[in-house]
């Protein structure tokens, strides 16, 4: 499986298409869209950002690779799914804000793709509620750098697992139900 494109490449590709979204927002929205069962389409930015006027990324471009790798990671049974946030060398506040942006965008993409209330497990419902709480958070709530690095790592892992759980409920679960019928 190929790796996700690097944050700066995603940023440049987003800017060149005039998307006006950060890498974290693009990836969060894409993940939310896909996790709720949204179609894997080459023109994904138009779907995820709810703007039919947006151009489709060129085949093989950074944003096309982002979509293809994200789809593969969400489907991966070894849980290789990763979040695109901010550069690892960025200050803690920047990385924290990117995580909360990712969560907000995930919820937006999830809502766009799921439409009516999706059928979720109890764990899926809790994960969605927790993501909604994180989407309302801000980096101002963090104090000391050492504890915050640990807390951010824990929150990132939680968000990663929550996204996989919701994808499992909405996409993998429905595939499983279809194969039983």
Distance between the termini: 31 Å
Tell me the major beta sheet: none
Percent of residues in helices comes to 55-70%
Unreliable spans: 176-181
Radius of gyration equals 16 Å
What best-fitting shape do the alpha-carbon axes yield?
A: globular
Question: β content, as a range?
Answer: under 5%
Average pLDDT rating = 89
- Tally of helical runs: 7
Q: Tell me the series of helices and strands, N- to C-terminal.
A: HHHHHHH
Broad structural category:
mainly alpha
Total strand segments: 0
Walkthrough of the structure:
The chain is mostly helical and 181 residues long. Helices cover 64% and strands 0% of the residues. The chain is built from seven helices and no strands. It has helices at residues 7-16, 23-35, 44-48, 62-75, 92-114, 122-135, 145-180. It is globular, with a radius of gyration of 16 Å. 38% of the residues are buried. Residues 176-181 have low confidence and may be disordered.
In short:
The chain is an all-alpha fold and about 180 residues long. The C terminus is likely disordered. The protein is built from seven helices and no strands.
List its salient traits:
single chain, 181 residues, 7 helices, mainly alpha
Write the SSE topology.
Elements: H1 7-16, H2 23-35, H3 44-48, H4 62-75, H5 92-114, H6 122-135, H7 145-180
Helix pairs in contact: 2-4, 2-5, 2-7, 5-6, 5-7, 6-7
